[in-house]
């Protein structure tokens, strides 16, 4: 799944009333690992946003305003950890009409949709292509690699992979971004970054193991 050469994910079929969504909030939960957050009534100020939750048969239908979605058939047999990264990193290939994507981990629940609105408005009022928080505890790529290794999420080859991508100074000085949420404009720059992120994940964790 996703091994080189890189193959694009398939776009998903949207409900008729969501086919023109240009700004989407996206979350994911496979295998009942996370529960989709409930936000109750959505502010009219967010009526232009579409909320998509990618789940499987192990999850109950997500609460409103989420619209339940499935990954394309070619990804159905992939491990849950890989499917979740497809949604997280390749959502621009799934939601082909989206121009802005706000991704949120299933485990992350904002206090209210006002937080979503505030972050979204901050982003669209800026000229940046990608916005996400700095990791609260780990500061460098190498620290992240050690965390993955000590958590048995990968093998020692993760260090070889990091060294093949980053210079010695980058491994220990680059700012590490938190992956629980991000907002990005769909376009060549952010799409390439997201696809390389997916490739790095697959290569650095032994095809997702």
- Largest sheet: spatial strand order: 3-2-1-4-6-5
First and last CA, distance = 11 Å
Strand count, sense and closure of the main sheet? 6 strands, mixed
Low-confidence stretches: 1-7
Note down, in words, how this protein is organized:
This protein is of the alpha/beta class. 33% of the residues lie in helices and 12% in strands. The protein contains 7 helices and 6 strands, in the order βββααβαβαααβα. The protein has helices spanning 80-89, 91-94, 113-124, 141-150, 157-165, 168-173, 188-204, and strands at residues 23-28, 50-54, 67-69, 100-104, 130-131, 181-185. The protein has a 6-stranded mixed β-sheet with strand order 3-2-1-4-6-5. Helix 1 runs antiparallel to helix 7. The radius of gyration is 17 Å and the shape is globular. Residues 1-7 have low confidence and may be disordered.
Looking at this protein, list some descriptive labels:
209 residues; alpha/beta; six-stranded mixed sheet
What's this, in brief?
With 209 residues, the protein is of the alpha/beta class. The protein has seven helices and six strands; from the N terminus they run E-E-E-H-H-E-H-E-H-H-H-E-H.
Topology:
Blueprint: E1 23-28, E2 50-54, E3 67-69, H1 80-89, H2 91-94, E4 100-104, H3 113-124, E5 130-131, H4 141-150, H5 157-165, H6 168-173, E6 181-185, H7 188-204
Parallel strand pairs: 1-2, 1-4, 2-3
Antiparallel strand pairs: 4-6, 5-6
